[in-house]
Protein: assimilatory sulfite reductase (NADPH)
Organism: Mycobacteroides chelonae
Amino acid sequence: MKIAYIPEDAPFNEDQRAWLSGFLAGLHSRLAMNLAAPPPAASGDLAAPRPPLRILYGTQTGNAEIVAGDAAAAAKAQGFDVTVSGLEEIALDQFAGLKYVLIVTSTYGEGEMPDNAELFWEALSSTLAPRLEGVSYGVLALGDTSYDGFCQAGKLIDTRLEQLGASRVVGRADCDIDYEAQAAEWVQGAVASLVTLAGASGTPGTPPPSTVVRSGWTRKNPFPAEVRVNRLLSRAGSDKEIRHFEFALADSGITYEAGDALAVIAENDPALVGAIADHFRVSTETLVDGEPLGELLGTRYEISAPSRDLLSEVESRAESEEFSHALRGGVKEVLDAWLYGKDILDILRIGGDALSLEEFMGLLKPLQHRAYSISSSALAHPERIHLTVASVRYQSLGRERGGVCSTFLADRGSNARIFLQPNKSFRVPSDDDAPMIMVGPGTGVAPFRAFLQEREQRGASGRNWLFFGDQHREHDYIYEHELDGWHTSGLLNRLDLAFSRDQAEKIYVQTRMREHGQDLFAWLQDGGHFYVCGDATRMAKDVDKALHEIVGEHGGFSPDEASEYVNTLKREKRYVRDVY
Ligand SMILES: Cc1cc2nc3c(=O)[nH]c(=O)nc-3n(C[C@H](O)[C@H](O)[C@H](O)COP(=O)(O)OP(=O)(O)OC[C@H]3O[C@@H](n4cnc5c(N)ncnc54)[C@H](O)[C@@H]3O)c2cc1C
Ligand SMILES: Cc1cc2nc3c(=O)[nH]c(=O)nc-3n(C[C@H](O)[C@H](O)[C@H](O)COP(=O)(O)O)c2cc1C
């Protein structure tokens, strides 16, 4: 039997030729062995090469990556040759050479790009960005309507691509926190449009098999975990209340990795539930759409932070000049300042009897889970997940207030519904010899406790350096014995502490970084990975600034060269952040 021959001038590139040769050789050997097994469904490939599709995601906590994986499965089923990657993995000149692209991105901070999309956006928004006439694209934006910059990252990318001449093949969808159904619909529409455009040769209607492995416990189906440990870490005299929690995984089958986050679905404070019922002069037993009001307010809806709709509705009926000025003035800072320390009950009280109970219920948003960086390694604690949580407590307008989830865990959370939020980009280096530099003041130390447990269990030989800090050493040095123990044992080669209020001048983690800038730069030069976790508003920005300065000073670089050095760290995933 003759092996089929591919003519030299056949219109295949090198990869396609190699694939076809392999396929034909395999086919030949099967025929020769008289096997009845059918060849792979490759007729489409022989007739026309599969159109290439690049799917890119911008993500902080993994949702966009999951949707990108689903889109890839759907597109593959329709005959596309799909490559999926994070936005940090593509340079703009490469992007300009793509034909078909789908981008799924979340928004972070205050209307900002997620970390892994930052460099892509910098290049795309630059005046030097190339024209993109050859690119056909679609953007799916994930976000949260409670933020002012709702889906801002997706909107910006979508608009800029259009400005640069790329062709939008499917309209952008802006998804709120319950993104799953809308995202699935968009994926279907996007793939259908691409099929028409590219003439892909899949089987319409084939259900796309998801390539992403998900735990059975999700936001819609959370695992009811027992909270086995709830221990105060900060000591008497501290301004803060930081607690250590341990969740029993029991027979859930949940497996996690250091760097992942745990989502907790809280229940609202019964006192606040009661006060809202009192405002409407009804009992919590009152049925609303067949369910007791107390149950709905306790577990189903956000009853602390007011939604935009609720604010608008109350404002339009209340006679409060101050409220109207704040809401309608169009100045975000004025509204934020006016709202600071006010919750839904305060707004209801300003409005008096403005709303009926039914109207009020229609203006509430679903209660959202809160994410917490896991502070244990599954290698050390396979049956438990540890969290390190700061309780949010404050007084405002003569009433004690508490953060929904942190005080639920602290005060009432003997059981809690949980699900895992994997964060693949925040991991201990796969190279056990690579140095790790971790900056995690306050609760930011959480994932680094997990990283250190992980490295200890793995017997990893790489050097470890932690910058930790808070206000006072005496009250706020959480996990002191563990950290000091690791320092003594040598697992932590370096431990630099910054307690801001223990001396006249303020000392922060970035102060310590600068003091040891030369060594820090040397660790980076040795292939070190640089991690930051904790406060996004101040700390992460100050640490980023310090890092640039250190690289500039000790590398002998200009500010632009230092930025390029730091950008390279980001591209190599050696500078990653878990900030909130
Ligand atoms: C990926 C990720 C990881 C995280 N990891 C951790 C972690 O490891 N540990 C941790 O503790 N948190 C962590 N967080 C933060 C956590 O998710 C919650 O945001 C935090 O616990 C507050 O939630 P809450 O429900 O208790 O408060 P909420 O009910 O959400 O209330 C918080 C709000 O209360 C208001 N507020 C707070 N203080 C005052 C005040 N003094 N006066 C007036 N108003 C005030 C502010 O508007 C604030 O936004 C993480 C967040 C993310 C996204
Ligand atoms: C700290 C933080 C800041 C956020 N900021 C915004 C924002 O400014 N605008 C927005 O639309 N969504 C915002 N979100 C919501 C996320 O975009 C949304 O949860 C998204 O599904 C996350 O997807 P990812 O896991 O792929 O990052 C924010 C979420 C967090 C936790």
The pocket of flavin-adenine dinucleotide (ligand 1) is lined by residues 61, 261, 304, 340-341, 370-373, 388-390, 392, 394, 396, 403-406, 443, 446, 578, 580 (CB under 6 Å).
